[in-house]
């Protein structure tokens, strides 16, 4: 089965435990949450961009990055650890457990570590599409608290579609 390793991650009790810990930590959060809807959304949008732009990135690699890019979010709430770093570390363990090769793990974890930065020409195609899909997955158009959202604090113009 083509997406076997992705389905294995989605059935992994460790992965589901991390998701639950994020859910609990975000119980009172007024801004967008980091739940399965977000993870699946980022994966699907990144895959669409990859197809549109003929990037030739394996669907499994895109979904692995999408499903894991915020998985360490609970550690940011619990211990103040930057969630891009925490997610990279947790992803490394989960990817190893599910037989992703060293080269695949390197590509995926580097995209996770950089998912908030647009690094320009040096970034990998995977990192670039995860960055873009992360933004596109959010419904900022109809959000009435976006003026106080971190995303728009640094003067970012509200570009919703590109
Ligand atoms: Fe994130
Ligand atoms: Fe995200």
Number of strands: 0
Helix content percent band: 55-70%
The helix count comes to 8
CATH architecture: Orthogonal Bundle
CATH topology: Hypothetical protein af1432
**CATH-defined superfamily:** Hypothetical protein af1432
* Radius of gyration (Å): 15 Å
Count of the domains = 1
Distance between the termini: 33 Å
Q: Uncertain spans, ≥5 residues at pLDDT below 50?
A: none
Largest sheet at a glance?
none
What layout of secondary structure does this protein have?
Elements lengths: L3 H7 L2 H13 L10 H17 L6 H10 L4 H7 L3 H15 L4 H12 L11 H12 L26
Helix pairs in contact: 2-5, 3-4, 3-8, 4-7, 5-6, 6-7, 7-8
This protein binds fe (ii) ion (FE2) (2 copies).
Produce a short descriptive summary.
This protein is mainly α and 162 residues long. It is 57% helix and 0% strand. It has one domain (4-152): Hypothetical protein af1432.
